[in-house]
């Protein structure tokens, strides 16, 4: 049975020490995450989705997020750029992108998921994940940053959509809480596995 992979917000502003909103230790994720993605096998992997925190200056200034965090991941800036190269993934495995303007990749209406190779038209987020379920995908592995914000919300939504979720702790970092604490506080290992 194939699983799906979600790579959360591996962008310059979160990963680089001089980024607008660096997550402590996130720069140490780049090499092991690249190798982990390179090792994905087509017969075991239905696809890889890269999420991208994406803000516009005028909209961000009025957002709830702006009350907690400085401006970051502004569209088109170096800090918005993805630091993991999807080209390391076996080309047989389809790769996708989802841009989101809030922590939770499930919260905004009208979000589309597009193939990175442009080989198919964008698909509404709900339809995309419903199609995965129809194709027999029941398990999703989530990696990236930040464990206690965007990774947490991604996992929560996947659980609510009926997927089993695994989060490798070596491939995520949190701002205030690491993933083991997030799982213990919010779900327990019956809902999210650590592996």
Word description of this protein:
With 195 residues, the chain is an alpha/beta fold. It has one domain: Rossmann fold. Helix content is 24%, strand content 22%. It is built from 6 helices and 9 strands, in the order βααβαβββαβαββαβ. Strands 1, 2, 3, 4, 5, 6, 7, 8 and 9 form a 9-stranded mixed sheet that branches. Strand 6 (139-145), helix 5 (150-160) and strand 7 (164-167) form a beta-alpha-beta unit. The radius of gyration is 16 Å and the shape is globular. The two termini are 17 Å apart. The model has no long low-confidence stretch (mean pLDDT 94).
Features:
single chain; 6 helices; 195 residues; alpha/beta; 24% helix
Itemize the secondary structure elements and their pairings.
Elements: E1 3-8, H1 12-15, H2 30-38, E2 45-53, H3 57-61, E3 95-100, E4 112-115, E5 123-124, H4 125-134, E6 139-145, H5 150-160, E7 164-167, E8 172-173, H6 179-186, E9 192-194
Parallel strand pairs: 1-2, 1-6, 2-3, 6-7, 6-8, 7-9
Antiparallel strand pairs: 3-4, 4-5
User: Can you identify the CATH superfamily?
Assistant: Isochorismatase-like
Number of helices: 6
Radius of gyration: 16 Å
Range of helix content: 10-25%
pLDDT < 50 stretches: none
The total beta strand count reads 9
Largest sheet: 9 strands, mixed
CATH level 3 topology: Rossmann fold
- Report strand %: 15-25%
Spatial shape: globular
The pLDDT mean sits at 94
Separation of the first and last Cα atoms:
17 Å
């Amino acid at each position: 049975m194939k699983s799906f992979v979600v790579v959360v917000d591996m962008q310059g502003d979160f990963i680089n020490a001089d980024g607008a909103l660096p997550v402590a230790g996130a720069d140490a994720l780049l090499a092991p995450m690249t190798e982990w993605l390179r090792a994905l096998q087509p017969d075991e992997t239905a696809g890889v989705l890269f999420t991208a925190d994406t803000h516009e200056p005028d909209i961000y200034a009025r957002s709830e997020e702006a009350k907690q965090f400085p401006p970051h991941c502004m569209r088109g800036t170096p800090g918005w750029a993805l630091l993991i190269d999807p080209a390391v993934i076996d080309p047989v495995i389809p790769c996708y992108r989802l841009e989101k303007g809030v922590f939770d990749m499930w919260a905004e209406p009208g979000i589309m998921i597009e193939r990175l190779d442009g080989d198919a038209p964008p698909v509404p987020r709900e339809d995309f994940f419903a199609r995965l379920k129809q194709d027999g995908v029941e398990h999703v592995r989530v990696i990236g940053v930040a464990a206690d914000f965007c990774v947490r919300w991604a996992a929560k939504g996947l659980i609510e959509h009926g997927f089993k979720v695994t989060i490798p702790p070596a491939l995520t970092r949190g701002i205030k809480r690491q993933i083991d604490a997030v799982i213990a506080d919010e779900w327990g290992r019956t809902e999210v596995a650590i592996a």
